[in-house]
UniProtKB/TrEMBL annotation:
Cross-referenced SUPFAM superfamilies: S-adenosyl-L-methionine-dependent methyltransferases
Pfam families per the UniProt record, alphabetical: Methyltransf_31 (PF13847)
Top-level taxonomic group: Bacteria
Domain Methyltransferase: 68-144
Leader sequence segment: none
Protein name per the record: Methyltransferase domain-containing protein
Length: 205
């Protein structure tokens, strides 16, 4: 009963139109889910996932505007494809997710350059200046040492103005403490749906 009440509450918060869009997209996406053998969380659509909406809104509020935006762990690109920037890149280590994202882009014409890879791949690209680096929904899987090592390696060779990252409730304080040693916290916002905290950090001084 509690789960049902929770779903009703979430649906009301998102609104009937968003719920209808999300359900329709889930039906249309399911065959692709089978074709590309994706993860089930890929079916959790943008219109009823609050942290994705927050990430896009956060990106729009980044001071100074956005020329180059990169999302590492982009999945199907539901966040990066909605951010307004001249150049957008989406990286994911799952080649099936990238293939799926590229297929969807044929219809949406978002102009995102989807690539297979992660931080190590990004380090090797010719991109030198990144206005916003988005890393949502996966840092909690990684060790502190891995995160710090990879980020510091990236920041040594690339100019990254801002990083957008999230922190899960069961690890409250962990990501914030780690990133406080890497950049300067600009703002944090709470996600009512998943109880996550989204942080924006400035990393270029």
């Amino acid at each position: 009963m509690r789960k049902i009440n929770r779903k009703i509450h979430v649906a009301r918060r998102h609104g009937a139109e968003n719920v209808a869009i999300a359900l329709a997209q889930k039906v249309m996406q399911f065959p692709l889910f089978l074709v590309y053998r994706g993860e089930r969380w890929h079916l959790r659509g943008f219109h009823t996932t609050n942290y994705k909406k927050m990430a896009v809104a956060f990106a729009e509020d980044v001071p100074g505007g956005l020329d180059v935006v990169v999302e590492v762990g982009c999945g199907l690109g539901e966040i990066v494809s909605r951010v307004h920037a001249k150049h957008r890149f989406g990286y994911d280590i799952d080649p099936r997710a990238i293939s799926w994202a590229r297929f969807l882009q044929r219809f949406g014409r978002s102009g995102v350059d989807f690539r297979v890879g992660s931080f190590d791949t990004l380090e090797q690209t010719d991109l030198q200046d990144i206005d916003l680096l988005i890393t949502m929904g996966w840092f909690h899987y990684m060790s502190d040492e891995w995160i710090e090592t990879r980020l510091r390696a990236l920041l040594r060779i690339k100019r990254v103005r801002y990083i957008l990252v999230d922190e899960f409730p069961y690890q409250r304080g962990r990501i914030e403490k780690l990133f406080d040693t890497i950049g300067t916290q600009v703002e944090q916002r709470h996600d009512w749906q998943d109880d996550k905290i989204l942080f924006l950090y400035r990393c270029d001084g």
